[in-house]
């Protein structure tokens, strides 16, 4: 008989390794793989290397299962369809586990659960895992996926190994993170983040699998054991639930490591903006899911001579350098951007990136092998369309062709306007931080904070309408979403705000903090007051003038923050209602203040940082004087 490569698992015996050489696994990785193979009992093990051969193999496998189809109009492009029950992140089933509850949750007087970093005790988590993971990969392949968040082997990067039974996760992680055997070398004798993921449907399955997309929504859990740097995810194969490098490692885990080590992991795009004179400014933009980070990063400026280049579209790791500047780096390798609504008008950058080696999920497709979604309907020229559920679709059909949280996954490096420093391990120096959410009423188009602590306050008080990026899907209710990080802060919210406030130190060049609102509507007609997208460059221009030309004095002071004077904002060629866009009303702010105070009271309780209390009362004073 042919000698077969195996991993010897204690208590179980040899488990075949169908690809990769287990002898090349670092000792601790091999141990991890063997222990978890004992727990989950896969039929075989596959050690991934991130190559295009591997991509093709996953694609063949998923195609045979009916989950994936090649999009013939591009090269190496695929469309995937998930189960309609597995289309977005599930916050209610996402937990952070630490020995002491205090490290994670702020204490509250009432029994309602925290909206930020839901704590689960180590004991309860063990029970939850015991009820799910034993034998969960029976009949399935266990993929061993070594990846790095950040350039491989660099000082601030994080080495990770994810075990998964989802070939889709392998296919997409290859785009989103740096998957390579070099990560195993970088691990060497060292530690790594342990990610354990299963779709939760062992074979043979006793239930019918919709769209052949196995998942177990009723048993879903995503849990972070912070002290052990371990992430456990069960029951979902999609997005932030299963691509564990993204929200789980690069935000929740990283934010808590950043707290301990003095840096920040934030839900932010990083962009370079160059003006017609060739002067470049780097900006970080924090917004809740579905509020415009990717669109901003891939924007085509409407003003002539301006250029925007992408560094990152979703996550920023930021730390102050010895020169006192704040450097931001993108730990990801790809973009997992919202597909529906991306068009030549709104977001031409997305379409220019989607030419080769990408995966779209839960979009529609045309009979000539192209992707299709809301906003692209006019491009249908007689082709037949199949919607995200696999059903025939026609213009005028009631249901939209793509799911509202349909996504494209594409390599950052394949985007034509990628910045040459996009993968710099040090990052780029940030001059301004922009926050923004969906605020149909009351909040101006752009506001500059009075100071660092006022900026932190504005960001902490950020609210936005819910979007389809997480379940339950879009209601239009306003939700608090501090720093756009509500689902991603991996530790105590009070400590998080203190950490942000503590960034300000003598000798540091603090970026200015702004708040933007692309989504204000006319109070009577309900129509959007601002055209958005490429026109947002006009707001960036003002922000840059205020930031880099320290002496540029032109502002109006409002109770909410500094506002631009009409003559300082380039509005030429636009028909906009400046007065409505910037109206700041006493009654509105009074309600806003009360509501924000209540929120902090509920979510922070006694851990509200003193400085935030001062910001609240200064805000109150300013409102009183209106
Ligand atoms: P996540 O990937 O979920 O974190 O979202 P994101 O912050 O990257 O949001 P994205 O850029 O994908 O934008 C989400 C949706 O917001 C888009 O599909 C647009 O419909 C809308 N959007 C983005 N920018 C603008 C804008 O300037 N104006 C308006 N009106 N809508 C915008
Ligand atoms: C978000 O929800 O902010 C995303 C998509 O970027 S997911 O990867 O699903 O978290
Ligand atoms: Mn995001």
Automatic annotation (TrEMBL):
Cofactor(s) annotated in UniProt: Mn(2+)
GO process annotations (BP): cellular response to glucose stimulus; gluconeogenesis; glycerol biosynthetic process from pyruvate; oxaloacetate metabolic process; propionate catabolic process; response to lipid; response to starvation
Keywords, comma-separated and alphabetical: Decarboxylase, GTP-binding, Lyase, Manganese, Metal-binding, Nucleotide-binding
EC number: 4.1.1.32
EC category name: lyase
Reactions it catalyzes: oxaloacetate + GTP = phosphoenolpyruvate + GDP + CO2
Leader sequence segment: none
GO MF term set: GTP binding; manganese ion binding; phosphoenolpyruvate carboxykinase (GTP) activity
Protein family: Belongs to the phosphoenolpyruvate carboxykinase [GTP] family.
Assembly description: Monomer.
Protein's job: In parasitic nematodes PEPCK carboxylates phosphoenolpyruvate to oxaloacetate thus introducing the products of glycolysis to mitochondrial metabolism. Catalyzes the conversion of oxaloacetate (OAA) to phosphoenolpyruvate (PEP), the rate-limiting step in the metabolic pathway that produces glucose from lactate and other precursors derived from the citric acid cycle.
Protein name: Phosphoenolpyruvate carboxykinase [GTP]
Originating species: Panagrellus redivivus
